[in-house]
TrEMBL record, chain A:
Cross-referenced Gene3D superfamilies: MetI-like (1.10.3720.10)
Single GO biological process annotation from the record: amino acid transport
Keywords: Amino-acid transport, Cell membrane, Membrane, Transmembrane, Transmembrane helix, Transport
Protein name: Polar amino acid transport system permease protein
Signal sequence range: none
Domain ABC transmembrane type-1, residue spans: 71-277
Family of this protein: Belongs to the binding-protein-dependent transport system permease family.
Location(s) in or outside the cell: Cell membrane
Transmembrane segments: 27-48, 68-95, 107-127, 255-276
UniProt-recorded Gene Ontology molecular function terms: transmembrane transporter activity
Membrane topology, from the record: Multi-pass membrane protein
A cellular component annotation (GO) from this entry: ATP-binding cassette (ABC) transporter complex
Superkingdom as given in the UniProt entry: Bacteria
Length: 289, 250
């Protein structure tokens, strides 16, 4: 077998002044920009001039007390889902990375189960748990119980929704946190251990802040996903944003206007969160170029 | 100060340390040479119990590091106690392993404050003194990412010194550096040796070994093949393997 010979073009050394650089021309750029502008103008025209959108109704309901209350509930569910989800997810990630095979397979099983079940199914399941186990008791398995409580008292619709969202979120958070922890150079752990820094401090001061660099962008996705994801709890008749606008348009028939109200609020929430994410990323990026 | 007796260590079926005996006296400098994979890093890591030994004992200042002896058995100590004993040993890594999200000052004060529970003000003053000593007094508030390799390694040395350890371990401290930056790190290490710090240095810098070492050990395949004053080991080695290695690195 012979290797192909690489022919190099003979170098030419043109004398004279340095040549002027002419950037390549993009002939389609202007027509394309014009096309986009026309489409945008058409969309704006359709939104503003078609009376079916009923902008006056949108304006009237955007800050209606019942709508604002529902936005707050949406935020509350999101915050609870994310905080509890990431707290449990962090524990699961640590279990998954632990050398103990029982802990790591338990975490694996959890992630497998909760990623496999649709959120809506899980929510209905918790909501209806009271029918399955009318009383919950805590104690030694198959042995005596320590205390005993009516399931309905414990699992209110709000608690069921929070539980469902948090458990669901934890499965995804576990993978995000695990990925983040694995992205930290093992030398960091080693250096911290060699300095005699206690285990908890090693995790919270040295490893986790570095893992945050890869956790935050993914967590941002999850939070924004959850803001909208909370809308599935409408099936439990919890008056979060999506449920609330449905209640209103079922009463007054202004469907489009109220969907717009919800859309505007979701846009506001995700915009605020995206801006917050930018600053959080900058915080954890400190010390790096 | 450091005493190893019959230290064995395996990773699975790979027998990395095969009975190592070493003694380093107070204020002495031991330089360890040897080909890649001969077990030098593993040896250093067993000294501060980053790696558990399978057999044999490691003592630092008379204390077993990871164990408590009772009768003819060794009981592994609890994490807290191991961490306390570890603070008596400074470790300098080939890749520095500075904490990139902390400033130089925070890197240095982290262990005195949180491992040794010294007051913050005392640790800050210590950081200032140590940075002066390694010639980086103006870098206290810089992040490691803005420093050159040589400067980073000098910060790492200051960080290890902040524990006021009884012995300093160096694992190829200049191997990750550009050639023109090696000198500044070696000169800090020479100052330390001159000041009476007990040091064990794994390095390929033969010049440093010749000038600074009290004892040179040559390791090969998990054993200390040759041990003696630099003049003897470097200029008149008894083993063919040592001679072959030296011709390669010189
Ligand atoms: N944690 C580990 N697990 C498995 N093998 C290891 C581990 N650490 C080191 N080794 C192996 O042990 C041998 C000696 O490694 P090392 O002590 O790093 O040698 P040196 O520092 O002399 O180059 C090498 O073959 C290396 O691959
Ligand atoms: Mg090594």
């Amino acid at each position: 077998m012979t290797l192909p010979r690489i022919e190099s073009a003979p170098a030419r050394h043109d004398e004279g002044p340095a040549p002027k650089v002419v950037p390549a021309r993009h002939l389609l750029r202007w027509p394309a920009a014009l096309g986009v502008l026309i489409l945008l103008a058409m969309a704006a025209n359709a939104l503003v001039t078609n009376p079916a959108w009923e902008w006056d109704v949108v304006g009237a309901y955007l800050f209606a007390p019942s709508v604002v209350r529902s936005v707050l509930l949406t935020l509350e569910l999101t915050a609870l889902g994310i905080v509890l989800g990431f707290a449990l997810g962090t524990v699961l990630a640590l279990m998954r990375l632990s050398p103990n095979p029982l802990l790591s397979s338990a975490a694996f099983g959890y992630v497998w189960l909760f990623r496999s079940l649709p959120l809506i199914l899980q929510l209905l399941f918790w909501y209806n748990l009271a029918l399955l186990y009318p009383r919950l008791s805590f104690g030694i398995p198959f042995g005596p119980g320590f205390f005993d409580i009516g399931t309905m008292d414990l699992v209110s619709p709000l608690a069921a929704a929070t539980l469902g969202l948090a458990l669901h979120q934890a499965a995804y958070a576990a993978e995000i946190v695990r990925g983040g922890l694995l992205s930290v150079d093992p030398g960091q752990r080693e250096a911290a251990a060699a300095l005699g820094i206690p285990r908890a401090r090693r995790f919270f001061r040295i490893i986790l802040p570095q893992a945050m660099r890869s956790i935050v962008p993914n967590a941002g996705n999850e939070i924004i996903g959850l803001v909208k994801g909370t809308s599935v709890v409408y099936i439990m008749a919890l008056p979060e944003l999506f449920y609330q606008v449905q209640v209103i348009y079922n009463r007054n028939g202004r469907v489009m206007a109220l969907l717009l109200v919800a859309a505007i609020w979701y846009l506001i929430l995700t915009t605020v969160l995206s801006i917050a994410q930018h600053y959080v990323e900058r915080h954890y990026g400190r010390g790096r170029a | 100060m450091v005493e190893l007796r019959g230290v064995h260590k395996s990773f699975g079926s790979l027998h990395v340390l095969r009975g190592v005996d070493l003694d380093v006296g107070r204020g002495e400098v031991l330089v360890v040479l040897g080909p890649s994979g001969s077990g030098k890093s593993t040896l250093l890591r067993t000294i501060n119990h980053l790696e558990k030994v399978d057999r044999g004992t490691v003592r630092v200042d008379g204390e077993l590091l990871g164990y408590r002896r009772s009768g003819d058995r060794l009981y592994e100590l609890r994490e807290r106690e191991i961490l306390r004993r570890r603070t008596q040993i400074g470790f300098v890594f080939q890749n520095f392993n500075l904490f990139p999200h902390l400033t130089v000052r925070q890197n240095i004060t982290e262990a005195p404050v949180h491992a040794q529970r010294r007051p913050r003000a005392e640790a800050d003053a210590l950081a200032v003194r140590l940075l002066e000593r390694v010639g980086l007094a103006d870098k206290a508030d810089a992040y490691p990412g803005t420093l050159s390799g040589g400067q980073r390694q000098r910060v790492a040395i200051a960080r290890a010194l902040a524990l006021e350890p009884k012995v300093l371990l160096f694992d190829e401290p200049t191997s990750a550096l550009d050639p023109e930056l090696v000198g500044e790190v070696l000169s800090v290490m020479k100052d330390l040796a001159g000041g009476g710090t007990t040091m064990i240095v794994v390095t390929h810098e033969i010049g440093f070994a010749r000038e600074v070492a009290d004892t040179v050990a040559f390791m090969d395949a998990g054993r200390v093949l040759e041990l003696g004053p630099p003049a003897q080991v470097l200029d008149d080695p008894a083993h063919e393997r040592t001679r072959a290695f030296l011709t390669k690195v010189l």
